[in-house]
Amino acid sequence: MLTVQTRHAVHPNHARAMDTDELREHFLAQDLFAPGDIRLVYTHYDRFTLGGAVPAGGALVLDKVEETKTPSFLDRREMGIVNIGETGTVSAAGETWTLDAGDVLYLGVGAGPVTFGGNGRFYITSAPAHRTFPNKLITLADCVEVKMGAVETSNKRTIKQFIHPQVMESCQLIVGYTTLEDGSVWNTMPAHIHDRRMEAYLYWGMAPEARVLHLMGEPEQTRHLFIANEEVAISPAWSIHAGAGIGGYTFIWAMAGDNVDYTDMEFVQPGELR
Fold this sequence. Notes:
Blueprint: E1 2-7, H1 12-16, H2 20-27, E2 28-29, E3 38-43, E4 49-53, E5 59-62, E6 77-83, E7 88-92, E8 95-99, E9 104-107, E10 114-118, E11 122-128, E12 136-138, E13 144-148, E14 157-163, E15 174-180, E16 191-193, E17 197-204, E18 212-218, E19 221-227, E20 232-235, E21 242-245, E22 250-257, E23 266-268
Parallel strand pairs: 1-3
Antiparallel strand pairs: 2-20, 3-4, 4-11, 5-10, 6-9, 6-11, 7-8, 7-10, 9-12, 13-14, 14-15, 15-22, 16-23, 17-20, 17-22, 18-19, 18-21
């Protein structure tokens, strides 16, 4: 079964007046992964779409999505798929790929219907695209790793780049994930913004009782969300994004917008936050 939610863009002045329930309604995506379902969230932030597919040993097909008004979802879009579950398969454009946990698959414009199979737990990211690039499976062995942070600042972490200029070419979609080292809690500190593109964070690999305190909002008007495992923070271009978690966790970052330069962020030092 396919279900789609729509999230409209929010002006920062509007976000300043939101209470907790309103913040969660607009900026948090929950319950994306259900056996036998494909669940999507279509956002008006750069028309970025995210979601989950859990075939549960069967097969699920993603084809027509009414919100895009195209015969097939990928007619004018590219897609990045991350398997956060057991081994599964994805089929499109006459090919089938096997994805182990942590592998990422890129599908280009015109790949046609997408079939999810096996016991995978697939996180879906997608953005409009104007060119077709080859479909590509990027395994853990193929990604580029970047070490950042320090024990002293509680943010020692490993960044794994998959759909990224250092690894492959795409139109505007960038996808990777970051894992915190033991004893570190801050996923991004100092915080940053990038006014040229939006970003979404899927928190993954957390204990059921654990939570991440995800910081958002304008630097001088910060807000927060408490986020559980397999939930997504939707971050507009005007918002900071940083967080601290309980226990070990990974977060999958996916971005869409004008600029694919990963280093274009504008850092906001802790002393500047309010």
